[in-house]
Each structure stands twice: as structure tokens, then as C-alpha cells.
Amino acid sequence: MRPQRLFLLLSLLFTVLLPFLPLVLWSISEKWFYPDLLPQAFGPRAWSYVFGTAGDQLVFGLYISFTLALVTTLVSLVLGIPAGRALGLYDFAGKKLISLLLILPIIVPPLSVAMGLHLWFIRLGLAETFIGVVLVHLIFCLPYTIFVLWGVFTDYNPEFEEQARSLGASPVRVLLQVTLPMILPGITVAALFSFLLSWSQYLSTLIIGGGKMLTLPILLFSLMDSGDRPVAAAVSLVFILPAMLALLASAHNLGRHGLQGVR
Amino acid sequence: MPRLQSSAMPPAGTRRRTSARRLLVLLGPALAIILLLFGGGLLLGLLQALGQVPSQTLSTIGGQHFLHVLQDADFTKSLTLTLYIAITSTVIAACISVVLALGLMRWAANSRAINFLLQIPLTVPHLVIALSVILLLTPSGLFSRLFSYLSIISTPADFPLLVNDGWAIGILIVYVWKEVPFITFMLLSVLKNMGVELLEAGSTLNASRGQRFFYIILPIIAPSLGAACLIVFAFTFGAFEVPYLLGRTYPLALPVWAYKNYSDIDLLARPEGIAIGLIIAAIVILAIISSQLLLHFGRKRGLSI
């Protein structure tokens, strides 16, 4: 390896990994007074608090965050696949207008929309409910999903479906054995986008979910305000775990395309 | 994905047409939901910000909440701070990304390790990095301890204020760390398709490094760079968590100010919070429209960008 490349690689490695160092150190520290560079005593206090004393709350937070992100992703895919197909395959008037309609919810901050929706959701009985928070996450997860699938269907040839049909395959069989296998990599990327967007959402969940939907980011936020550094560090490591797992899985399956474009 | 392409098939992406009915079936549900929730949210917000509260049958519609916000002396300070954070972090991230993308351009396409490394910041939520910056850069943080260990400083007070500071350094660091990989990936995907032919032609014609950058690479990456910067700008302009955690208590970034009003015990402050939220949305939408117009006129004048 050339020296410049080695330097570039090492500085990248350092910059990317540095933020995780204090999180790991704090999460396993028992006593760490200034000005010591390393904790005076290591110990599992934070972790046993996270999974023991406050275990119920954290596991519930994990459960809420996970199911919220999962349901949002599934609904996004069910609605987004047909929409992406229409946009990717066909030419029709008004496409530019539709793409503007899809860009706006991605660009406009969720807080502007969530504050307006709140009162309406209270009246409809959707505030502080699971469905209400899914709906508010859909506002930006669905357009993201459609954009990814729009790109997928631009390179898709629907005549394979016709061929399969002419060979006697039922519509369900065509869907399962022709269409889905061809768009599966695109679906995986779209699902990861949507999952991570919903997973890391804070303010819109807080506004619509009130005090009821205590997702991981909301728990982490209140921990940071309370100032218990070891526990906050431990929870934040739990918080990034699914993303890291998704990343590892995608690096394995999707090769070089991976998660490009996730914000 | 198996390669199924055969010569008997027309090339993928052939422009096809279909009935309006079928389009409606495919697109209708998704667009209806987005229109209803997004459009509805903005519209209902606007009504509330204009003083129309649904439970009160008779209320005066008017721009008094908007006027009150716009005339508040804090508004200009908040707007300036928010613009400063969004523009500075976008510009710094863009510059680093261009250098990084050029450095990685021939290498990253073949290196899984580099791709993997750059994807890590994309997946980590802003909230976690904000916490990490607190643990690293506050006067009792890891860097302060390191400097103290190296006897560069003697007390935490000697360490420069980098979090909750006047220049929003901590906020900028979080955003730059998060956004550089995003912009870099956008640039790398363009550079990967560019090939080396143009650059080789350039060097054959004795173009210097700078000339090759400004006359070959920059025009090619400019549209993607612009689009990526716009997305980053819009995000950093409207994000709440990072300025809330790492910012000073005065002046507040616009999104923080908006939420503070919205969640105020005084219910009269609520329409003002919504009004600030709508002002943020308006500024972001204006930024998109004006950049599109600039691009449009640029093209008309024959600029290659």
C-alpha cells in the first residue's frame, strides 16, 4: 500500500471510530473522575442497570422502537412497491409534479408537519397511539421508499412476467418467483432506509406519541438530561446495535452498493 | 440478481404507457397518504398558526402569530444562528467530501473495507454522536483529560469551550461527521461512472492538476454535489436534537425555539410554535425552488453545470 493511501485509510479509521471510544469507556466505567485519562475503576454497573433495574423500561423501549420501525417499513413497502413500479416503468403526464410531491416530505423537517397534525390526531384519537406514530413516520419513510423503488423499476423489464404468464404461471406465482426475486436487492435497501429513518426519529415521535410511545431515542434523551453518563452511553450502544447489524448484513449481501444514501 | 437479459427482449427501461386507471391503482394509495398526512399537516398547522382553533367556533383569522414571531427581536438572532449552522456545516462537509471522493475515487470502487467504513456514520443516529461529542469535547471530556495528562492544560477551565459555545463548534462537528459520508457517496457514484478517459485526455493536453479539477471533474460532479448539499442544508436547518443538546440557551436555533413554544405550558404560545415551524418549512422550500431556478437559468445561459 502506498504511504498516502495508508495515511488516508488510517485517518478515516480514526475519525470514524473515535466517537465510539468514549461511549464504550463510559459504559463500562465505575468511577472516572477528572483528570484521569482512563476510568479509575471498571465495572458492569451501567449495563446491569440497563438490563436489570431499568430492564423492563429498556426492553419495552426496544420493543416499541423495533415494532414501530418494522410496521412503518412494511406499510412503506406495500404502498411503495406499486408506486415505484408505476413511476419506474411508465411514462405519463404529471411525473414531475409527483416527484416534487415526494421530495417535499423528505426535505421539510418532520417537526413542521407533526406540530400541525397533532391537534387533528388528538381529535381522531390517534395521538399517543402506535398507529398515530406509524402514520407520522410514514410521511417521510414512504417517499424515501418510493424513490429507491422508482430507481429499481427503471432498470426492470416486465416482459419476463408476460413470458411466465404465457408459460402458464399464475399471477401469484409470477409475483413470488419472477417479480420479487428480481427486485429483492432494491427492496432490501428500501427497507433498511425506512427502518433506520423510523428507528432514529425523535421529535415527531415525541409530539405525536406524547409520553406513551417511549422509544429508545426518547429514553436516551431523558437519560442525557439526567446526566448519568455511564447509563446514557450504554443505552446509546444498544441504540446503534440494530443499525450495525443491518450494516454488516447489507455489506455481506449487497456488496458495494450497501446503504449509500441513508442519512 | 441473476442476469436474465437476452437479445430477444427489448432493453430495460423502454418507455411504456399504460391506462390512467392502472396508474391510479398503482400510485393512488401512496400519493393519497402522503398528500393527506403531509399536505394536511401543513394546512392544519397553517390554520392553527393563523389563529383558527377548531374547538372555538368564532375566532379571528389573521397573521398576528406570524407577525408576533417575525417582529420578535430573537427571531433574527435565531434565524442567523440556524442559517450559520446549516450553511457552515454544509460548506465544510462539501469541501471535505470533494477531497475525500477524489482521494478515494479509484480505490473505493474496489475496496469493501472503505465502503464499509464510510457507511458506519450513515447509520449512527445524530443523537448518539451528540452524546459522544459531549463525552469527548466538554471541559471534562476525553480530549481535556488527554491534554491534562500531557500537561498542556492544568484545569478543565483551561480547555476551550467547544460544546454549548458561541460558535456552535460541537453542533458543526456532529453534522460534518454525519454528512461527509453522505455527500462522498453521492460524489463517488458519479466519479465511478466518469471513467479515466477525460482525465487522461486532459493530461495529454498538458492540463495541470488544478485545470483538470476545475474544467473536468468539477463540472461533472457539480449537479450531484449541489443536490447533496441541498439535502444536507435542509436537514441541518430543520433538525432539533443536536442544537438542543449542544447549543447555548440563547439564542436558540429555530427548530428548538419552535418546539419550546409549542410545548410551553402557556397554550397561547402554541400557535407561535407552529408558525415558527411553518417559517422553517417555507425557508427550506424556498431554498429548493431558488436553487432549481438558478440551475434552470444557468442551463439557459449555456453553462455546462
**What is the percentage of strand-forming residues of chain B?**
under 5%
Q: Give the averaged pLDDT of chain A, no decimals.
A: 86
Strand content of chain A: under 5%
Indicate the CATH class of the domain at 68-211 in chain A: Mainly Alpha
Instruction: Report how far the terminal alpha carbons of chain B are from each other.
Output: 35 Å
| Number of alpha- plus pi-helical segments of chain A | 12
Q: Greatest chain-chain interface? A: A-B, 100 and 103 residues
State the secondary-structure class of chain B: mainly alpha
SSE layout:
The complex is a heterodimer of chains A (263) and B (305).
Chain A: H1 3-17, H2 20-27, E1 29-31, E2 41-42, H3 45-53, H4 55-89, H5 95-107, H6 110-124, H7 130-154, H8 159-166, H9 171-199, H10 203-209, H11 216-226, H12 229-253
Antiparallel strand pairs in A: 1-2
Chain B: H1 20-49, H2 64-71, H3 73-108, H4 112-123, H5 126-137, H6 142-149, H7 169-194, H8 197-204, H9 209-238, H10 241-246, H11 254-262, H12 269-300
Helix pairs in contact in B: 1-12, 2-12, 3-7, 3-9, 4-7, 5-7, 7-9, 8-9, 9-12, 11-12
